[in-house]
Amino acid sequence: MHPDARVVRYDDTSTASLTFAELADQAARLAGALHGLGVRRDDLVATLCWKHPCSVATSRCRL
Questions:
Q1: Residue 1: inside a domain, yes or no?
Q2: Among 29, 23, 20, which Cα is nearest to 63's?
Q3: What InterPro entries does the entry give (predicted)?
Q4: Which residues pair with 7 in a beta bridge?
Q5: Taking a C-beta distance cutoff of 8 angstroms, is the pair 63, 39 a contact?
């Protein structure tokens, strides 16, 4: 993936976008926060952020 390429989400009322580099940063920060809460590799984490940009970062998060 190219760090400057954009991830774009559209819905009926709005558009949101960020670069793959920004997405990687969000995913890394989320992984760090989850690790700080005691979540470890192979633990299951449920999310509830449908149709929201956070769902993309959450799906890319790796511990």
A1: no
A2: 29
A3: AMP-dep_synth/lig_dom
A4: 18
A5: yes
Q: Which domain holds residue 26?
A: 6-60
Say if residues 47 and 36 touch (Cβ distance below 8 Å): no
Contact, 30 vs 14, CB < 8 A?
Answer: no
SS (H, E, C) the chain: CCCCCEEEEECCCCEEEEEHHHHHHHHHHHHHHHHHCCCCCCCCCCCCCCCCHHHHHHHHCCC
What is the pTM for the complete model shown? 0.70
Amino acid making up residue 63: L
Q: What is the pLDDT of residues 12-50, one digit of tens each?
A: 888 888 898 998 898 899 899 999 999 999 898 887 776
Point out which residues pair with 17 in neighbouring strands.
Answer: 8
